[in-house]
Structures are given as C-alpha cells and as structure tokens.
Specification:
This protein has about 325 residues and is of the alpha+beta class. Helix content is about 30%, strand content about 25%. It has one domain. It has a 7-stranded mixed sheet with strand order 7-15-12-8-11-10-9, sandwiched between helices.
Length: about 325
C-alpha cells in the first residue's frame, strides 16, 4: 500500500494547479494581447505568429539586392542562366521571458472549497500573465539591448532613427542599403508634421505594399488629429467609428495605416516619446518555440518557503525580414 506523504500530496496538488493555470492562460492569452497595444498589434496581425521548432539561431530568409537576370528576349536570343545569389538569411538569437505564479500554502489552507482555490488561482494567473505581456510589450518597442541584451529586438532594433551603420540579424546596413528602414527627423517642426508623415509613408510604400499600422504615443496621436482639416475629420477613411460588441470604437488612420496608441510607448534616442513607427506587418514574424508559448510549468514548493510556484514562460523572437517596408519619424513637435 502506497504511503501518502506531504511531499506526494504537494506534487499531486501542484499538477492539478498547473493544469488549471494552463487552462486559464489559454483562455485569456489572445484577449490579454488587446491590453498591450504594440505586442497585440504585431502578434494579432495575419501571418505574423510562427511556430519555431528550435535551434541555436532563428533563420529568416531575406532578399537584399536585385539580381538583374530577368528581361525581355526574342526568338533565338540567349538568356541569362546565372544562378541567383541574392538571397541570404538573417540570423537571430531567441530570447526568453518569464513570470511566476505564486500561491501560499496559508492561502490554500484558508480556502473552503475547490471553487475558491480555482478563483484564487485565476486571479494570480491573470495578474502574472498581464505582467509578462506588459514586459514583452515594452521589449517589442525597444532595441533589444535591455537587461544585458536578453530582451527581444523590437521596433527600435529593425526601424531605428538612424539605420545607416547598424547590424540587424547579423547583416550590416552600412554595406546593404536595402537593409535599412525609412527614417526622417521632423526637427520638432510643427508646420512639417503631416508632410513628414507623408514622406515616410510614401518611402515605405512599394507597389501595393505599404504600412498598415502606425504605433505611437498619445501626444503624437493627438498632434496628428489636431492638424486634420474639417473635411478630413468627417472622412471615414481617416476617422471611422466602428461598433464592436456594445461599444463604439474610434479608429484614426493615415493613408491605409491604422494609428495605434500605446500608453506605455517608450522614449526614443532624444529622450521623449514624440516619435512614431510605421509598420508593414507582412515583413514581421513573431517566432515562438513550440511548448513555450506562454506555457505554464508545474507548481513546485521551495524548501525554505511554504508556497507553490509555477513559471509562465515565453521563448522566441520578433524579427523583420524586409526593413525598408517600415519607417521611423522622430523628434516630432508636441504641438
């Protein structure tokens, strides 16, 4: 007959709690994205989220130059059969992020029913999931150098204010002009804001490929709206009032790009949040390791505490495969 020990009871309880927390994470993951504008916008765009099987590096194929081997011909003309050597692979390190669900044994002892335990676990799981997403949201805006370069490379990594001499994905932009994002300094000029936005937007446009999102701060969003003429203010292509559920949601646009305000928008190199990123999400991939897409580990108990702890873990990378489709307008006037 098996002997039931406190340790074995803890293991059984840990497995039950882990399964329950995993269920909660799956239920709230996509809806939680909506509370974190940059991460939610990128991760929610069609085709961006990709499964990654693992490996030392994440490889993303990119095309840097035009080969020039295609063209017209007639009759018996010879044609160019030179093998294409324009495609290469950008290489990215995967990054890990984690948050811990902690439940004290005292709290569990005070629970009078399994439902009470489930409610406590749901609250703690939701809290830590939001904390993890908030941190990933900040990483998705930054340049990847945070926390000793353990952060993912975000917008300021692939669309910085000056891309002329950086290295992204192991490829130097100084020797590959096509491996640069579009960029422009507004010079804090209130008169040129709309014109400069138009310039960056046009530079990011190649045929039918154009930015579909502009992510910025509340200040810049309000500056843009203040500059709209009376005619544009009633143009449904600029401001639309869409009904979502029981609420009406105003959507502000510039060209084909929806303007997204991130309340946690990070500062650029000039120390202010007065910049904006124009993104074409067709050029972005959010790779996530299989089994580490906000996965919940088993609850275990440290030897020196009467608590149960389980990690929520994410492992992957945000990468851009065509930087020139994205842009950065910086030092924007706040008026």
């Amino acid at each position: 007959m098996a002997v039931v020990t406190p340790q074995s009871e803890t293991k059984v309880l840990g497995r039950v709690l882990s399964a329950t927390a995993h269920k909660y994470v799956n239920e709230i993951r996509d809806s939680a994205f909506e509370n974190h504008a940059t991460w939610g916008t990128i991760a929610g765009a069609p085709g961006v989220r990709q499964s990654w099987m693992g490996g030392a590096k994440i490889q993303a194929p990119v095309n840097l130059v035009v080969q020039g081997t295609a063209g017209s011909y007639q009759g018996y003309d010879t044609f160019d059969t030179t093998p294409s050597n324009t495609r290469t692979a950008a290489l990215f390190d995967s990054k890990e992020s984690i948050a811990s669900i902690v439940v004290s044994q005292r709290d569990l002892d005070n629970m009078r029913s399994p439902e009470a335990v489930a409610n406590l676990l749901q609250v703690e799981t939701d809290l830590q999931m939001q904390e993890l997403l908030r941190d990933l949201n900040l990483q998705a805006m930054n340049d990847g150098t945070g926390n000793s370069s353990k952060d993912i490379g975000g917008i300021l990594a692939f669309a910085p204010e000056d891309p002329t001499s950086d290295t992204y994905g192991g490829i130097s932009s100084s020797s590959n002009s096509n491996w640069r994002n579009q960029y422009l300094d507004n010079g804090n000029s209130t008169a040129d804001t709309l014109a400069d936005m138009r310039t960056v937007y046009t530079n990011c446009t190649f045929g039918s490929r154009r930015p579909n999102f502009i992510i910025t701060s509340r200040t810049v969003r309000n500056v843009y709206e203040s500059k709209l003429t009376a005619t544009l203010r009633v143009d449904p292509l600029v401001i639309s009032d869409n009904k979502e559920g029981n609420a009406r949601v105003e959507r502000l646009r510039f060209g084909a790009a929806q303007i997204v305000v991130d309340g946690d928008f990070v500062a650029g190199s000039n120390g202010t949040t007065n910049w904006l990123a124009m993104l074409n999400t067709d050029s972005l991939k959010l790779y996530t390791k299989q089994g580490a897409d906000f996965s919940v580990g088993e609850f275990t108990s440290p030897q020196n505490q009467t608590v149960l702890v389980a990690p929520i873990r994410w492992h992957g990378a945000l990468v851009c495969t065509e930087r020139r489709l994205n842009g950065n307008l910086f030092d924007i006037s706040a008026t």
